[in-house]
Amino acid sequence: MSGPSRSVPAWGRAAQAGRPAIHAVTYKGYSITVDLPGWYPDGEGEGVLIGEDMAAAEEALRDLKEKVDGLPSPATIRRIRNKLKLSQRAAGAVFKVGPNAFDKSERGLVEPSGPT
Questions:
Q1: Phi, psi angles (nearest 5°) of residue 86
Q2: Helix (H) or strand (E) holding 100
Q3: Helix (H) or strand (E) holding 13
Q4: To which CATH superfamily is domain 70-116 assigned?
Q5: In what order do the strands lie in the sheet with 39-41?
Q6: SS (HEC) of 17-49
Q7: Strand partners of residue 15
Q8: Which residues have C-beta within 8 Å of that of residue 42, sequence separation ≥ 6?
Q9: In 10 A of CB 94, how many CB atoms?
Q10: How much is the pTM?
């Protein structure tokens, strides 16, 4: 295992960062596996996720929602808007939402309310 080490009293042993664990993300019966970074105990066991550690799982969930429900991911929203050469303000006018809606969608802070 690589990465820094820290003592985790609840486990009674050390944990190390840098070794991602394989994690299954499931949505409406569909699954995808991701390498999930975090702090994991030496040997087997559950880990502790801090800060950005959940980003891989959140991105996988967005990808599943795009596949299953047709809800575009932030990357898809940005890619389409850029392909059409629209500013966020212009895209907001086309879809009758404000430019802040596109900014928040492209940053993954909110999800579109339905298929576009």
A1: -110, 140
A2: helix 99-106
A3: strand 13-17
A4: lambda repressor-like DNA-binding domains (1.10.260.40)
A5: 5-8, 13-17, 39-41
A6: ECCCEEEEEEECCEEEEEEECCEEECCCCCCEC
A7: 6, 41
A8: 1, 13, 14, 15, 16
A9: 11
A10: 0.67
4: left (phi over 0), alpha (psi -120 to 50) or beta: beta
Q: pLDDT tens for residues 24-42?
A: 899 999 999 988 887 777 6
Structure tokens at 82: 């850029």
Segment 95-116, tens digit of pLDDT: 888 778 878 888 888 877 655 4
The domains of the chain are located at 1-52, 70-116
The CA distance from 95 to 76, in Å, is 16
Residue 54 DSSP one-character state: G
What CA–CA distance (Å, rounded) separates 72 from 69?
9
Three-state SS for 51?
A: helix
Length, in residues, of the chain: 116
The encoded tokens of residue 66 equal 């795009």
| CA-angle at 59, arms to 55 and 61, nearest 5° | 120
